[in-house]
């Protein structure tokens, strides 16, 4: 099973499933790119990439999965994080080109990664075949029902400024973003990620600013989109996903129990939801990049 973060290899000390180093995907191979963000790096996906790639290869055996760290996080932590989502998108495009990916890709985004996905699909429609938005919070849609919960996002920023121990900070983040994941299952791995790729307060603030500034288009993207969200999300009101779904005519799948970090709380559910969507499209005879 071939998975690759931005560097092409994962650190074996992270107590996570081993991710083998792989060559750049062939242009003809379906390529899926995972985008996180807002103080989280590719290592915070947990076991979700393993589940997703397994489901994808059941449908498309040549599928490849790449995980990109946004500027200022993870392997890109020494970069200054842009305060505009468009600049983050351009940095990701450069990274894909560096990796030898020349054809259209499909994107999966959550947190700041959702805004990156949205802007990428809007400005470079020929480069995107499909998108999966997880618990999205995008203006202007979030304004139609209830606004996102900014105090919770501010709380995440203040945690990075606090004098709490690293363990206490990570436990607090976990309590804000999950509902089904026990602390002992991930905290030690998160602490190791933080030790290896420490995230500066400056980049955290700049990422938050980019997220707050971004405003998505009301017009649906050229590429087909799938929305996945949880009603138990403590950071983002699920009605935002509902509003996007109605405006774009995009399918929406609801999880009743998971928190904001849906891929961490229920990775199998997310992976299967993506696979079922792709399977339904195939049965209907819908080609890559087509809505219907």
- What is the rounded Rg? 17 Å
What is the average of the pLDDT values? 86
Structural class: alpha/beta
**What is the terminal-to-terminal distance?**
31 Å
Number of E strands: 7
Q: Give the low-pLDDT segments.
A: 6-23, 147-151
Structure description:
There is one protein chain. This protein is an alpha/beta fold and 292 residues long. 41% of the residues lie in helices and 12% in strands. The chain contains ten helices and seven strands. The chain has helices at residues 48-59, 85-98, 112-123, 150-161, 166-177, 183-196, 201-213, 239-248, 262-265, 267-283; strands at residues 3-4, 31-35, 64-68, 105-110, 128-134, 225-230, 252-255. A seven-stranded parallel β-sheet has the order 1-3-2-4-5-6-7, sandwiched between helices. Helix 1 (48-59) packs parallel to helix 10, helix 4 (150-161) packs antiparallel against helix 5 (166-177) and helix 5 packs across helix 6. The radius of gyration is 17 Å and the shape is globular. The two termini are 31 Å apart.
């Amino acid at each position: 099973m071939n998975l690759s973060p931005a560097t092409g290899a994962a650190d074996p000390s992270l107590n996570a499933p081993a991710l083998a180093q792989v060559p750049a995907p062939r242009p003809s191979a379906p390529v899926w790119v995972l985008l996180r963000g807002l103080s989280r790096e590719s290592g915070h996906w947990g076991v979700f990439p393993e589940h997703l790639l397994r489901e994808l290869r059941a449908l498309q055996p040549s599928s490849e999965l790449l995980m990109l760290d946004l500027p200022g996080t993870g392997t890109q932590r020494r970069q200054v994080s842009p305060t505009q989502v468009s600049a983050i998108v351009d940095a990701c495009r450069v990274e894909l080109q560096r990796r030898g990916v020349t054809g259209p890709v499909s994107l999966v985004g959550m947190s700041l990664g959702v805004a990156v996905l949205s802007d990428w699909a809007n400005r470079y429609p020929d480069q995107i075949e499909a998108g999966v938005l997880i618990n999205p919070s995008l203006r202007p849609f979030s304004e139609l029902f209830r606004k996102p919960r900014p105090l919770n996002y501010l709380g995440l920023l203040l945690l990075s400024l606090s004098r709490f121990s690293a363990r206490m900070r990570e436990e607090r983040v976990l309590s804000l973003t999950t509902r089904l994941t026990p602390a002992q299952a991930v905290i030690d791995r998160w602490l190791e990620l933080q030790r290896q790729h420490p995230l500066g307060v400056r980049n955290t603030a700049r990422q938050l600013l980019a997220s707050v500034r971004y405003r998505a288009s009301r017009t649906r993207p050229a590429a087909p989109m799938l929305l996945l969200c949880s009603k138990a999300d403590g950071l983002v009101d699920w009605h935002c996903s509902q509003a996007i779904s109605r405006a774009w005519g995009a399918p929406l799948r609801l999880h009743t129990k998971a928190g904001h970090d849906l891929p961490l709380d229920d990775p199998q559910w997310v992976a299967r939801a993506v696979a079922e969507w792709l399977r339904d499209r195939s049965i209907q005879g819908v080609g890559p990049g087509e809505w219907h």
